[in-house]
């Protein structure tokens, strides 16, 4: 049986779901293919994270998002997006990964790890949270090293190095310290990042200046061993005892996948995919980009807040071209 659609949406993150709602509203034949759970990136966020956005800014499909606290947490968001899926009864295949897209005449041919599909249009809403930016240093593949942070409990009473000075690193360092870990931050630049949430930045700066959390500025992690790490500091190399490393140095979109679809990436080291900002159509006709994947390495540029509008822009363009 040939499975042919008007639009296939890759990724069931908040923005992929927003696209699905608009496709359904326009009576298009659509399918969402998601390699993990519903809103898989949010599912993998730190257990007790709080969004910097207020709940109404995370809403999609014009459905109100209510939460007790004005800034919702991960659990609130999972609840909301689950209800969105149930309310709209969206057509989603979970736990199915898209491996490739080929152009076949006017159609796109999509191969997943389970099946094959044809579609007139594709929306790539694959986010950036699946691929960490690696340190590429010896010992990075040891089991004590993680590029994702879930919760502080495993680190209680342990010597933990946190690499990075952005929101993820700062939240992890503070939480781990508060649950009894001995925390050392290794920070490439001379200060905590300016984009750290304004209500958290003074907290970490004060913990560092009082010596509760140790921090090496202008420093890089050089090597990780079973029981120690080597840090290259402005005063030379030092080796300190260590049980765990949280290398929270950011994530990036799957550029190899985008290029394999024929999408051009900017050559300035930012790898920003080429798209028309009015329609979100990429340089490949009928392949659209939605959500945070649009930012390339500039992963701080797009959020749920400002990219949920992509859904209406894209589906209006697809619908206009279909009539
Ligand atoms: C810790 C943290 C806190 C944040 N807080 C906020 C906030 O307060 N406000 C805000 O607006 N934004 C926030 N963001 C950013 C926001 O959560 C993300 O930008 C959001 O998840 C983006 O939605 P998306 O749908 O574009 O991508 P994602 O949510 O990442 O969804 C992409 C989906 O595509 C799937 N996928 C990837 N590749 C494939 C494939 N080959 N086949 C099938 N499926 C695939 C993934 O599994 C994933 O489910 C935060 C991000 C982080 C990391």
TrEMBL record:
InterPro entries, per the entry: Bdr, FAD/NAD-bd_sf, Ferredoxin-NADP_redctase_2
Keyword Flavoprotein among UniProt keywords: yes
GO MF assignments: oxidoreductase activity
Gene3D superfamilies registered for this protein in UniProt: FAD/NAD(P)-binding domain
Alphabetical keyword list: Flavoprotein, Oxidoreductase
Entry protein name: YpdA family putative bacillithiol disulfide reductase
Domain of life: Bacteria
Origin species: Moheibacter lacus
